[in-house]
Amino acid sequence: MYINNCTTCGERCHLTCEWQADANMVRITFAVIRKSQRGYIRLCVRRDAWCRGGCVDDIYGGRRPQMEAMLDSLVAEIRELRANMIAQTGFDPIEHLLARVKSEESMRDKCRRKGLPETPESALQKVYDALGVRIVCGFLSDVYAIRDSIANSAKFDVVEERDYIRHAKPNGYRSYHMIIRSQSGYYAEVQLRTISMDTWASLEHHLHYKKKHGGNQKLIVQELKRCADELASTDVSMQTIRDMIMSEEE
Ligand code: 0O2
Question: Which terminal residue of the chain has fewer beta carbons within 10 Å of its beta carbon, N or C?
């Protein structure tokens, strides 16, 4: 708890701070509250702020605690599926896993791109990736095995699937996307991909996606596509090698 001048109303206020961390950055946000005779009351809140207590004016309408609970239960479910698969096959199908609540800025940006009002309803009911889990696997067959396990889980409904592996985007982007809905009504996007696909998507995200840079655009697009296709071909070769090793072991 800090005492400071409120940046919105200018009054001397108590600040409660919570730090939001997501996969890419740590952002400092705070809610401003003033002590009243009945205890602490909210005085004003920064537009992009949130706090765990729920006194929030943000794009998620103060529902971050519930969203984080949903994300935790999704991650716990995936860990359980993973443990079952290791017990059955002796192989770990997951290289690594990331989970995040989409940042305020990114969600507002997405609402604008989709022509939606920047409201909690848009963020939670019209855009489906406020909650996101990215599962990175070693091999193509692991991607589809995890996909099957998630689809069969009783804890979530699968509402949409997009196979950008079999049907890559024109720019070369590959990944398997699932939109799932929890019993509590929250949507989450699960992205499943191999290490190669993840490497390409991360680099392309930095270089190109959403941003228009200078340079020879046509050549950049062509080269990115070529790299994506070469990596996809390597994924198929690695899968073949793995299948050969596995069949020899049987
Ligand atoms: P961020 O910042 O990564 O979260 P649509 O439903 O088709 O109108 P939507 O919801 O964007 O559009 O669906 P889509 O195409 O399945 O993309 C969802 C997410 O997949 C994106 O979220 C990206 O994370 C990733 N993605 C999709 N296409 C590309 C691509 O060409 N390159 C890279 N690097 N990632 C991609 P966001 O919110 O757009 O971005």
Answer: C
For residue 203, the CA-to-ligand 1 centroid distance in Å is 14
| pLDDT tens digits along 188-224 | 999 999 999 999 999 998 886 556 666 778 888 899 9
Write the pLDDT tens digit of every residue in 76-99: 999 999 999 999 989 999 999 999
Helix ranges, the chain (H): 64-89, 104-113, 120-121, 140-152, 195-207, 217-249
In three-state secondary structure terms, 214 is coil
Per the CB < 8 A criterion, the answer to whether 133 and 191 are in contact is yes
Is 0.85 surpassed by the pTM of this model?
A: no
Upper half-sphere CA count for residue 2 (Cβ side, 13 Å): 10
